[in-house]
Write a structure and sequence with these properties.
about 65% helix; single chain; mainly alpha; about 200 residues
Length: about 200
């Protein structure tokens, strides 16, 4: 049975805790840039799982009562553009409110697509069907990285080289999403958000 979706009560609990240090996110430090980069990549992975996922972001934001921070999809997109790896990037540091809201939204989206994430990580499914699902996901994710990211950046080249060499990078994104959903998922995501994704497995 799937755990319950992140609710507004979960959001209230989340906002009452200090998961992120204000002085860290108020500066363009290496750690803060890495965290924003990771959140954006994980959202890209969700978009790769379901081509219509980006259209549900604004709806999920309203359900989570994040309207003040993200009144529409454009504001969500602007916040994601703080990722320094993007082709269109914003130089000003992201606000703590926007970053926290992105993390809440990411955890909620990971819960919504948990069945698909589980299928992509399952070793018990029909091999032919699994290969087709995996091929669709991985090629879509690589396409999104090529479309949205600055492929001249060293980190982006690494992502694409990892993809060409093995499935480990893609699977690490999926494992992170799987752990970000369900009961306690938001807290698990928050505690790991500053850990790098780029190393090989």
């Amino acid at each position: 049975m799937l755990a319950k979706t992140t609710s507004t009560s979960d959001l209230s609990t989340y906002n009452s805790k200090t998961y992120f240090r204000q002085n860290l996110l108020g500066l363009q430090t290496a750690k803060s840039r890495r965290a924003i980069e990771k959140v954006d990549l994980l959202l890209l992975a969700i978009e790769a799982i379901d081509i219509n996922a980006s259209q549900t972001l604004a709806f999920a934001s309203r359900n989570l009562q994040l309207d003040k921070t993200f009144p529409n999809y454009v504001e969500i997109w602007k916040s994601r553009c703080h990722n320094p790896m993007r082709k269109s990037t914003r130089n000003a540091p992201i606000t703590k409110e926007s970053f926290d809201a992105l993390v809440v939204l990411l955890s909620n989206m990971a819960e919504k697509f948990h069945p698909q994430i589980r299928e992509l990580l399952s070793i018990n499914s029909n091999q032919f069907d699994y290969n087709n699902r995996w091929s669709s996901f991985s090629s879509r994710l690589d396409q999104l990285i090529n479309e949205r990211m600055n492929v001249r950046r060293g980190a982006v080249k690494k992502y694409l080289s990892y993809s060409a060499d093995s499935n480990s990078f893609h699977k690490k994104l999926l494992f992170t999403l799987a752990l970000s959903s369900g009961k306690g998922g938001l807290e698990r995501l928050s505690s790991s958000i500053f850990e790098p994704l780029s190393q090989r497995l």
